[in-house]
Design a protein that fits this description.
Structural class: mainly alpha
Number of strands: 0
Strand content: under 5%
Largest sheet: none
Number of helices: 4
Order of helices and strands: HHHH
Number of domains: 1
Distance between the termini: 38 Å
Amino acid sequence: TRILLRQILPNALPLIVTQVILMIGGVILIEAGLDFIGLGDRNHISWGYMLHNGQHFFRDAWWMVVFPMLAVSLLVFALNVLGDAFNRALDPRSRIEYLNKPV
């Protein structure tokens, strides 16, 4: 267990955290896409379902499409940035490179 906690876990943790955060963004996109094409739950309101309903009124009420689309895009972008920040903060190799940089 000592080898696991001192050697393997510090090197695997950044990859696991980054992968989980990126997977959350992918799941959000998949859920929105499935709801957009009509394969989601009709009783559950989601951004994909809002986009599906708004596409019929795009010329008259453009905001019904633009704002849910921006919300999905910004959320997935923010999750990707957060995953990258966690990767850089938790990666032992990047900490060593940062500490060895000349001033």
